[in-house]
């Protein structure tokens, strides 16, 4: 009691007047409110800082005219993402001499005046860092056909190097904010110090949109669009190296096959009877051959544009007839030879092959095999070889062919000025 009494007495003598106590409480409330306001402002500033962090971006576009004739041409676009992964992309560029796109593939093309816009085709919209994809088109031209001067991918200029873009913070302020404290030592935004290796990664394999069982060879007339369905042979062969297997597709002169996946067994793939085009065709497990050019005209051309092939015990593409074989924007892995000019056909011809912008993934034997005694030639550019540190994959093998069915004799390999045409800058190892 005495202790409590003493405390009570002390409180009675030290208690402040009511007016003073009210003023003190208001001052504390004001100070607390100011602290809360400052804390809110700092939180808002922190949110703004996070939302404005920079994102790495950049791209590279290789533009080429792969063929040209009076009034028209075919163009190719090899697109490499040098920045953060993309789930979709839009490429923009402008022509300067009145060229007009008439058709395209591996993307949706539109044109307004000189400005061309290409959006991904869905199956090739995802591009990881360093990943590449390709698109192609046909177009008209008049007096000149210069290449576009610049390209943008998702609004970012394609300079061939990574860049840094800082997004503008989003959101609506509902009231005038208190002054935001200034950050005196901001955390530096990380930047990419090195660009991805030259050549990038090959485009991702597509996912089949459906399935078709093929019990008899499909004869293609005009343009056949498979809409990325998987075509699986039944009763056409076993998918090995037997010579009596049937093709899944057969194309007459001028035929076009596009957006097709050929499943296992691959049997004898695709036959082209003369000039033909295969766009965005994929072989999941190559059988005897993925595709064969037959015919008898020296002016015929078989064009492979986009797509890929896996698991070829021997050849991927077989060139039996004369003419030119073009392979571009293509990927191959686990294979024997990507291209072979027939070494022992009963009818032999001078043949040529052009291999452009191709990704080659080990294991593999050779990219091309040609017969020098018949005057064959092979030209290479933009070749990226992946996973072959010991460089076992030959770029170009040379043979002495024959027309009596004997095994052709290999006479050498490597670049020269007549048959195997390439330089070290045309080949990139990763």
From TrEMBL:
Cofactor: Ca(2+)
PROSITE patterns membership: CBM2 (PS51173)
Key words, A-Z: Calcium, Lyase, Secreted, Signal
GO cellular component: extracellular region
Gene Ontology molecular-function annotations: hydrolase activity, hydrolyzing O-glycosyl compounds; pectate lyase activity; polysaccharide binding
Enzyme Commission number(s) from the entry: 4.2.2.2
Entry's localization field: Secreted
Biased composition (Low complexity): 160-198
Residues annotated as signal peptide: 1-43
SMART domains reported for this sequence: CBD_II
Domain CBM2: 52-161
A GO BP annotation: pectin catabolic process
Coiled coil: none
Stretch list, region Disordered: 160-209
Similarity remark: Belongs to the polysaccharide lyase 3 family.
PANTHER family: PECTATE LYASE F-RELATED
Name this protein carries in UniProt: pectate lyase
